[in-house]
Prior knowledge:
The complex is a heterodimer.
Chain A: H1 7-19, E1 22-23, H2 24-34, H3 39-51, E2 55-58, E3 61-64, H4 68-83, H5 88-98, H6 103-119
Antiparallel strand pairs in A: 1-3, 2-3
Chain B: H1 2-28, H2 35-49, E1 55-56, H3 84-97, H4 119-151, E2 155-159, E3 162-165, E4 172-174, E5 180-184, H5 192-204, H6 207-220, H7 225-247, H8 252-268, H9 284-292, H10 299-316, E6 319-320, H11 324-332, E7 337-338, E8 343-346, E9 349-359, E10 362-371, E11 374-386, E12 401-402, H12 406-415, E13 433-440, E14 445-452, E15 460-462, E16 468-470, E17 477-484, E18 489-495, E19 506-509, E20 512-515, H13 516-528, E21 537-539, E22 548-557, E23 562-570, H14 577-585, E24 589-590
Parallel strand pairs in B: 1-6, 3-5, 7-12
Antiparallel strand pairs in B: 2-3, 4-5, 8-9, 9-10, 10-11, 13-14, 15-16, 17-18, 19-20, 19-21, 22-23, 22-24
Amino acid sequence: xxxxxxxxxxxxxxxxxxxxxxxxxxxxxxxxxxxxxxxxxxxxxxxxxxxxxxxxxxxxxxxxxxxxxxxxxxxxxxxxxxxxxxxxxxxxxxxxxxxxxxxxxxxxxxxxxxxxxxxx
Amino acid sequence: xxxxxxxxxxxxxxxxxxxxxxxxxxxxxxxxxxxxxxxxxxxxxxxxxxxxxxxxxxxxxxxxxxxxxxxxxxxxxxxxxxxxxxxxxxxxxxxxxxxxxxxxxxxxxxxxxxxxxxxxxxxxxxxxxxxxxxxxxxxxxxxxxxxxxxxxxxxxxxxxxxxxxxxxxxxxxxxxxxxxxxxxxxxxxxxxxxxxxxxxxxxxxxxxxxxxxxxxxxxxxxxxxxxxxxxxxxxxxxxxxxxxxxxxxxxxxxxxxxxxxxxxxxxxxxxxxxxxxxxxxxxxxxxxxxxxxxxxxxxxxxxxxxxxxxxxxxxxxxxxxxxxxxxxxxxxxxxxxxxxxxxxxxxxxxxxxxxxxxxxxxxxxxxxxxxxxxxxxxxxxxxxxxxxxxxxxxxxxxxxxxxxxxxxxxxxxxxxxxxxxxxxxxxxxxxxxxxxxxxxxxxxxxxxxxxxxxxxxxxxxxxxxxxxxxxxxxxxxxxxxxxxxxxxxxxxxxxxxxxxxxxxxxxxxxxxxxxxxxxxxxxxxxxxxxxxxxxxxxxxxxxxxxxxxxxxxxxxxxxxxxxxxxxxxxxxxxxxxxxxxxxxxxxxxxxxxxxx
Lengths: 120, 596
């Protein structure tokens, strides 16, 4: 699966996640309304996302191959893998170094870590 | 279509000088604000678009029409670039390489198809190649524009007129009438505002119109390498002028951020965008440098630049003045005159001008020729001269100036057509070669007729419809030029004295050559009896006879109150010095420069 999506493809995928399962005809109508796209444009972008393995078009019924949440977590995982050699602490450290954490955010992260420890 | 092509070739020739000037000015004034080169490029555009230009004395362009539009139909194709060196290089080549096929000369019909490839073929093929290139280049532009449009169909509107697209690498503007800004979605939010400011500045400057216009001109003038160079430089200057417009009111830190954005944009960019109208294919180094060094120009600098613009347009946007008047004056020196009812006698011949007629664009002269020793000879002959530069000359050649007689005067008055004609003609008549060259300066057209190895009679006929007939029974006679302005046509000629005959004295009477005593005595008689009035006389150079020389000889024509100047040389050996003195005293004024 290719996670590299541009802003436009992202927006299109969001529309599909929002409306799935949706017929390709309906998708054309939605895109025409929301993005002011012509029919061939919708089909082109749909084809590209199908090639990337994110969506599928079976007999005119468009569905996603991966839920939205899973896509985003996979994507963030990919970022950690690609940019921080798979090290989560390195990712968090770089994130914190750029942006001050609010006490609330720190608490929330702490809670997430605690919950993870209990499970383990 | 061929004539359009030749016209464009000529335009591109004069535009070439302007382009070179602009390139030099750009280099010299590289610190000038970048709108300045844009103004200069606009002048190049005007030069390339506008088929006409004003004549001006300030023009430094050597020739406004180096390639005659009728080059294909000319007997002797020639270019007149105004640069002697270039002409000398090119003309022999095209003359030899490309004889015109439709030879209008009927003397040697078998010589017609001798040349292989003709000038007409060359012009035709060149025109086809030009059209093909034009189609190819504009087709390329249209196809890449269409592909670009398809590419950006999958884009989402960010705000009015600004679209985000995944599949593009650089920001650009698409469309001429409803231009839209497209930015790649990969552009980060920090860079985006500067990119948008840049593209909006393009829209304000109407660059999305200027640039396609430049490309359109390029696709027409693709054969001129200077036009390619201009387009490339023009694109650069547009970008830098646009940058300047963006940073004009920015403080230094923001300008620095802007140049950072320029740099960020360029790093991701890989190849030259296929779509030629996209913005941004300029060396980012130069642009960043330009942005960081920008200073607002002072009022004095702006004024200076304006003056420079005016000077360049005066020198390069205008075409050179043609001095047709000078040519007429020059050839006038060698002129004899023909007027209605005038009678001339010489060497046993007598000529009477019967008719001088002017109608429309045609001037017609008829005359009778008689010969004392042959009473049977009594021929009426004539010649016509057309505004288009064709004429008809009769036997023995009436090389004449047609005076504004009453006939011509009235016709002119009636037709309200004044000064229709102006010609220059050259006829070289050595044994193997005759050529005639006509120029109609009113229409700015030129004609060249040429004949190789004429038959013994030396008569030849020229197209169309044998409008031109020239008869010459002496190969040493050279017609230098025919010039005129409607009511006055002058034919200039010269007699080539062969080496073995040098030492004899030659004189011309009414276009006929007299050698030594006979003709010369007639001259003396004419002078003595004041017959010079209403007649005209010429003495010609006799090669190296410089023992005695009279540089200028004046005589006054009491009827027409005109004064003529002639140059001649007299060989002292052939002439009694007292006789020379007598000629001079009998009403003929000799210039102080004379050496006797």
